[in-house]
Structures are given as C-alpha cells and as structure tokens.
Amino acid sequence: VLENQDLQDSIKPQKVEFHSLNFNTTLHWQPGWAREARDALYFVQYKVYGQSTWQNKEECWGISSRVCDLTHETSDIQEPYYSRVRAALAGVYSDWSLSCRFTPWRETVIGPPMITVSHSNKSITVKLQAPRSPYKRKRGSKIPMTNFYDLLYQVFIINNLLDEQHRVLVYEGKDKVIEIQDLRPGVSYCIVAKMYMPMLDHSSAYSNRQCILL
C-alpha cells in the first residue's frame, strides 16, 4: 500500500494552469516528479465556480497529452471556472490537482491586430483588423474581440534610419483604415500596431512589422 501511496504522490500533475488568447482557452500541466510519470494518462474535469459537481471533459479523459482545449467549456466569458487533472499509471490514480480560478473576460490575452499597408508617394494607408474570437455569428464568421471590449487601435511608425525601438505613436482610435501623411519620398518606413484596452490599461503584443519604401 505504501508503494501505491508513493506512486500516487509522485505522478500527481503539477502546475495546472489556464492559458487563453482571444478566448481560445487551453489547460496545461506538468507531469509528476517521478521519472515514470511521463508515461501516465490524464483525466480532466471542469466546473463553474460555485457549482458542486465536476464535469468530465470527454476528449481529455485518459490522454497522454498535457494540454486540454477548454474553449467551448469556458464560453460564458464572465463566469469564473476551475479545472482539475489527475494522473493514472499502472492502475494507480493520483489525487486531483486543482487550477487557480479563471475568468475568461478578465484573464484572456488579447492578440495584436492584423495590418496591411499601401502607399502613395507621400502617405501610407494602414488597414487594421482586430483579432477574432473563436465564437461565431449565425452566418458563420468569427466575432472580433472588439465586440467584447472597448478596444482602441494604436499605430506606430518606425523610421528605419532610427533605432528599431524608436516607435512613434501616430494614431489611437477605432478607425479601421487610417492614413499617415506628409512622409518623405525615398525613405523606408515600418508600421506596427497593437490593441489597447483603456478600461484595464492592457495592451496586446505588437503586430508583425510591415515596411514600405516611399
């Protein structure tokens, strides 16, 4: 029995954490500390905070992977959720390892916008597209993150002659198409953008750079 107890403890999953980007939400965990724990199978349950019964996540029941997609199960974005994972090896089950409380609306990370740039000889036109959530409209298109938060686009210009980190904010607002004027022909400019949420004072990462020679 003691050996079983040791095995139970040594295969118990560690660091059970939610990761979420634009409401695409996955649960991640590490294997137990025993070397043989790498061969364990895992079982995932979840519930809304305050509910008494745990739900099995069928697609993550007896899996060898250490990631479980809970996007669909956490789609009520204002609700707080918990999840828990247990491991099994050689007929022995570990205790459950509990995640921290996770509230999608507060904790999802907002990704950067997509940008496309075009130009005339003295101006650059930037088209911005907000990141999309996994949730769909009736017609099937994915709902943008701007539907869930009051988000602003921030557009920065990097003049290549200067240092890469020297980004100048040229626009902040909700317009999806902006024009940057009075630029110098023959100069190469790079544009990056990010999403900004004033209410929580959060910013996304920067978008990919788009560079253009006027």
From TrEMBL:
- Give the record's family classification: Belongs to the type II cytokine receptor family.
Enumerate the transmembrane spans. none
A GO term from the CC aspect: plasma membrane
Q: Do you know which Pfam families this protein is assigned to?
A: Interfer-bind, Tissue_fac
Compartments where located:
Secreted
* Species in which this protein is naturally found: Helopsaltes ochotensis
Gene Ontology molecular-function annotations:
cytokine receptor activity
Q: What is the recorded function of this protein according to its Swiss-Prot or TrEMBL entry?
A: Receptor for IL22. Binds to IL22, prevents interaction with the functional IL-22R complex and blocks the activity of IL22 (in vitro). May play an important role as an IL22 antagonist in the regulation of inflammatory responses.
Q: What is this protein called?
A: Interleukin-22 receptor subunit alpha-2
Q: Which residues form the Fibronectin type-III domain?
A: 12-107
Keywords from the named record: Disulfide bond, Receptor, Repeat, Secreted, Signal
